[in-house]
Amino acid sequence: MSGLLMPKADDATMARREAIIAALKTIVPGEGVVDATNAMRVFESDALTAYRQLPLVVVLPQTVAQVSQVLKYCHENNVKVVPRGSGTSLSGGALPLEDAVLLVMSRFNQILEIDYPNRVAVVQPGVTNLGITKAVEHEGFYYAPDPSSQIACSIGGNVAENSGGVHCLKYGLTANNVLGLEMVLISGEVIRLGGKHLDTEGYDLLGLMTGSEGLLGVVTEVTVRILQKPTTARALMVGFPTSEQAGKCVADIIAAGIIPGGMEMMDRPAIHAAEDFVHAGYPLEVEALLIIELDGPSVEVDHLINMVETIARENGASTCVVSQNEEERMVFWAGRKAAFPAVGRISPDYLCMDGTIPRKELPKVLAGMRRLSETYGLRVANVFHAGDGNLHPLILYDANVPEELAKAEAFGADILRLCVEVGGVLTGEHGVGVEKRDLMPVMFNDVDLNQQIRVKCAFDEKHLLNPGKVFPQLHRCAELGRMHVHRGKLPFPDIPRF
């Protein structure tokens, strides 16, 4: 059994279910409201499939006006709302609530404009990540952030979680590639932030919204930066006898001033799973594998390849293969991109973690994970963005074995505590969601958390948007900042008060 607890369903809302559904059907007619139990089953979980919950009702709007009216109705009638994109969240960010409307944005799936002179694309939030690249690649452009789920994940969900991917080391996360948003607040108000210009005036509300996990508003349009495809891109596939040597190689490459387009690492269990799945030609005798991509002008790429090969050999690399053409480069990446489903073939279930650490701490953290694996008696396969220290340990377990899910959760929590202990953070790109919610006090004290909740209150005073996510304990907005009076005396009585 999982130790995860979600907010208790509001009895008053549950009693009004039929009236709520009837009102929503007047706003989103036809097949836009799904309320039958069996039909809602497809929405009961996201990619964190260990947890499932049927929503109160599912609504699939098609226009901004419908989104606005749905949110306004829910705000006026105190009904909770959980926004959802493609449902690929690995942190439970789109997990439904029993007493909440699940607002699914998948029908917002149009590319509205491609502006090559300004190098931007304007898209609806239901467009897939890869769909943007497919729309512009014939002109030699692409969209840089590329999560492993890019064939399915939506750009709106990428904004909510500030997703990264293989190439985020050089080209940045979603936050570095989004220029503008249209979004709807819980009150129903439609606002715009940023645009095609490179910077915005005033407070950085665009940065605030990117990574806000559906707690502040619902995105209805996104303006993203598109880049010209590099003239040359080549990849190295480098094997090491130990993970520590591979980790040291990563640190030395960055220290040498080299910023690869992507630098990924897999350990032995992940290598074998990916090779069995994709047959990419990975060396099976090594303990760790680095895939390093260098891009730019061909002369520069050739020079950097020689530098990286030298650094790899100095760190004890036992194998080193350089791609000779585009097809071979794509084969190198095929196994890494398919690593998550590949690991799914060797274990009935797994939890995918998402901590981020300073690069120099890779050897220490990898050694710590091996010790934890022995302690909990569960296997772990490591697949991660080595260049920026974003770890994705896959904890293998069997949900049919009593208590194994609880053990996997405890194992994952200890990994994340270790990440924070060495100077890292709880999440790199998957978000906090419900998975890391109860670990927030490991990284933040009460003052930190209350300040974050104040931001939430500024946008959603009633806490109707995606409740039960991110914050380990909700406070009513009116309770924040209340002064404690003990025995009739205020704290610090000499401080002037206004």
Automatic annotation (TrEMBL):
<dbReference type="InterPro" id="IPR016171">
    <property type="entry name" value="Vanillyl_alc_oxidase_C-sub2"/>
</dbReference>
<dbReference type="InterPro" id="IPR016166">
    <property type="entry name" value="FAD-bd_PCMH"/>
</dbReference>
<keyword id="KW-0560">Oxidoreductase</keyword>
<keyword id="KW-0285">Flavoprotein</keyword>
<dbReference type="GO" id="GO:0016491">
    <property type="term" value="F:oxidoreductase activity"/>
</dbReference>
<dbReference type="InterPro" id="IPR004113">
    <property type="entry name" value="FAD-bd_oxidored_4_C"/>
</dbReference>
<dbReference type="InterPro" id="IPR051914">
    <property type="entry name" value="FAD-linked_OxidoTrans_Type4"/>
</dbReference>
<dbReference type="InterPro" id="IPR006094">
    <property type="entry name" value="Oxid_FAD_bind_N"/>
</dbReference>
<dbReference type="Pfam" id="PF02913">
    <property type="entry name" value="FAD-oxidase_C"/>
</dbReference>
<feature type="domain" description="FAD-binding PCMH-type">
    <location>
        <begin position="51"/>
        <end position="229"/>
    </location>
</feature>
<dbReference type="InterPro" id="IPR036318">
    <property type="entry name" value="FAD-bd_PCMH-like_sf"/>
</dbReference>
<dbReference type="InterPro" id="IPR016164">
    <property type="entry name" value="FAD-linked_Oxase-like_C"/>
</dbReference>
<dbReference type="InterPro" id="IPR016169">
    <property type="entry name" value="FAD-bd_PCMH_sub2"/>
</dbReference>
<dbReference type="GO" id="GO:0071949">
    <property type="term" value="F:FAD binding"/>
</dbReference>
<keyword id="KW-0274">FAD</keyword>
<dbReference type="Pfam" id="PF01565">
    <property type="entry name" value="FAD_binding_4"/>
</dbReference>
<protein>
    <submittedName>
        <fullName>FAD-binding oxidoreductase</fullName>
    </submittedName>
</protein>
